[in-house]
Amino acid sequence: CPRRIRRILDKNIKFHRMCAYMIVLMTLIHYFAHSFNVDFFTSAYTSKILVTDSNSVIQRKRLVARLIQIGNAPNETYLNPIRSNVVVGAVFLLTGGWTGVIITLSLFFMVTSSVEFIRRSYFEVFWFTHHLFIVFYGFLVVHGISMQVRGQTAASLLVHDPKRCSLINPALWPQNNCPTPVFAGSAPMTWKWVIAPMVLYVIERIIRLVRFNQQVEILKVIKHPSRVIEIQMRKKGFNAEVGQYVFIMCPQLSQLEWHPFTLTSAPEEDYCSVHVRIVGDWTTGLSKVLPSWKMPKLAIDGPFGTASEDVFNYPVAICVGSGIGVTPFASLLKSVWYVIQVNTASTHTLLVDGTISRYDSARDVITGLEQKTNYGRPNWDEIFSKTAQSHPNTHVGVFFCGVAALSAKVGVWCCTKFSNSNNRKISFHYNKENF
């Protein structure tokens, strides 16, 4: 597909977060609106006419009292669903009330467990609570099934004009051609909005189940420095491009946890590999079961695309990795080593980190290229300036994976500053992914 479309699709996580922010905002508005509604309905139910009330207040209270009573007699439809002077009890007696509480609590746990600290340190908490979206959408579909938000029907409006009849004492309505108004709620429409995504989700789950049952052969397990293990695997029909990632599940540890890992193998190799940093409970457990005499069963779901896939779609590419963010480019470096010939494409690969030991596991890939390795902090002005001078009239892809602070400097400052510099008509296209 066109480059512009690919760049939009590469921002799927950002789009997901923006949708989540909007859902939270709309939920808060919805929650507070109904909180006021329940308070008004309860106040109306307990409202009494006082001797000190003015005529206009008395008329309003009479009207409110009559509207509350509608629905008590046979063949009448109610307007006020509240039949209690206890607010909390009234809420939980309504279908919309108790389902709304469940929906709001589900969203609360999903949002609070999605903060970066929880995702990094307690991935299992994030993973399991995020699946509360099933509860969220399930109760969202039935939230309005009782049609408790009601209004006067179109047919009733023809014979009972609210503007005229509201000025008349409700006890005198029959004598003034104001028949008892009829109220009804709208049929729930939420299912029309969620049915398509839910069907897609079910299909995706079925595909994952099929992939779970496909055999994965573990060829080799290599222990690297800095608490990193490399797993080389083979799966029938598995094909991947540079920079893609997979979800891995180990039934021996948990049949519910799927963890994402970037592929570090090249498309030209007859196996796929991942580098796993031992930092949490699941990765620690995996490191313990892998050295056993009988290899554990692994399941692979994927591969899935990232922005790094497009690296060969640019005549010139600058790749910047920070920390564990160098792993998406390990696959690229291997592919360059295998197939890229001199003058076919120009790839400037920068591995940026505080300590070289953080990517010891990729050292054999780097040295295998027999290219000069520079240590220290890169001079971004010099790098982008030289690239702009050497490649006029060129689209340059800048691929980044790492910390947000460096992303802001490389993406916002460098790409904006040096695009079309000195009328050379060079364009830097920024592609970012984060772990």
Automatic annotation (TrEMBL):
The keyword Heme does not apply. It is a multi-pass membrane protein. GO terms for biological process: defense response; superoxide anion generation. Keywords: Membrane, Oxidoreductase, Transmembrane, Transmembrane helix. Residues 211-310 form the FAD-binding FR-type domain. It catalyses: NADPH + 2 O2 = 2 superoxide + NADP(+) + H(+). GO terms for cellular component: NADPH oxidase complex. Gene3D superfamilies: Nucleotide-binding domain of ferredoxin-NADP reductase (FNR) module, Translation factors. GO terms for molecular function: superoxide-generating NAD(P)H oxidase activity. InterPro entries: Cyt_b245_heavy_chain, FAD-bd_8, FAD-bd_FR_type, Fe3_Rdtase_TM_dom, Fe_red_NAD-bd_6, FNR_nucleotide-bd, RBOH/FRE, Riboflavin_synthase-like_b-brl. The chain crosses the membrane at residues 15-33, 86-110, 122-142. It is found in: Membrane. The keyword RNA-binding does not apply. Pfam families: FAD_binding_8, Ferric_reduct, NAD_binding_6. This is FAD-binding FR-type domain-containing protein.
